[in-house]
């Protein structure tokens, strides 16, 4: 790869995630100002959907941070950032319902969620070790070390791609639940989908960046053995 091509490549790796994050923030800001017809807070939305699905062992808690919302399957806790916990907006309802989607996946032992959980230790190891192995392989001219690093990094890439169906499915469940429970009406579905789709972009961007890096490492390894 030429110097110019490499610069473009690095720029794209930086631009894609930044663009995705910017899109999420713009969309969230816009729809955090629009209240739902039900005027339920994110915490109320989460609790209602959980109860309607017979899930009573999951606690809903407030947490600090901007868009730090997440579901912790180990502790059975759904944490919502303050603005979403107390907010009555479309954005708050969409994000709360999305996280409940993960709780429902957990309760139903959704296959991709279980697979992702199983990959966590392998993906963490791959993320931490791969760069050291690949860089060390090039420094010491050890192609086997480079290859091992690529294998480790592949595990991290696999985790990113397994995350996609988990997130898309949670968003699909969220829309179904928001409508069926009456949290939003038919006129609000389109705007709610925009919030969920924007959030999904961050996962797509992360997966594409990881794949691009993997391809680059493979091409470097191939070139070093020619």
TrEMBL record:
Any one GO BP annotation for this protein: proteolysis
The entry's keywords: Hydrolase, Membrane, Protease, Transmembrane, Transmembrane helix
Residue intervals passing through the bilayer: 6-24, 118-140, 146-166, 200-223
GO MF terms, alphabetically ordered: peptidase activity
The protein, known as: Zn-dependent protease
Organism phylogeny: Bacteria, Bacillati, Bacillota, Bacilli, Bacillales
């Amino acid at each position: 790869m030429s110097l110019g091509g490499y610069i473009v490549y690095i720029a794209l790796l930086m631009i894609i995630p930044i663009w995705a994050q910017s899109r999420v923030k713009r969309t969230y800001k816009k729809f955090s100002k629009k209240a739902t017809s039900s005027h339920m807070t994110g915490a109320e939305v989460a609790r209602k959907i959980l109860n309607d699905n017979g899930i009573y062992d999951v606690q809903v808690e407030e947490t600090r941070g901007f868009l730090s919302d997440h579901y912790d399957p180990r502790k059975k806790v759904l944490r919502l950032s303050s603005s979403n916990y107390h907010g009555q907006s479309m954005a708050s309802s969409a994000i709360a319902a999305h996280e409940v989607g993960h709780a429902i996946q957990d309760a139903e032992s959704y296959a991709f969620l279980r697979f992702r959980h199983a990959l966590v230790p392998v993906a963490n190891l791959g993320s931490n070790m791969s760069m050291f192995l690949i860089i060390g392989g090039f420094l010491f001219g050890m192609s086997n070390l480079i290859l091992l690093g690529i294998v480790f990094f592949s595990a991290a890439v696999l985790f990113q791609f397994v995350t996609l169906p988990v997130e898309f499915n949670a968003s699909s469940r969220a829309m179904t639940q928001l409508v069926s429970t009456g949290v939003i009406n038919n006129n609000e579905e389109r705007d709610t989908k925009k919030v969920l789709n924007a959030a999904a972009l961050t996962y797509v961007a992360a997966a594409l960046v990881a794949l691009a890096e993997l391809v680059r490492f493979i091409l470097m390894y191939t070139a070093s053995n020619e």
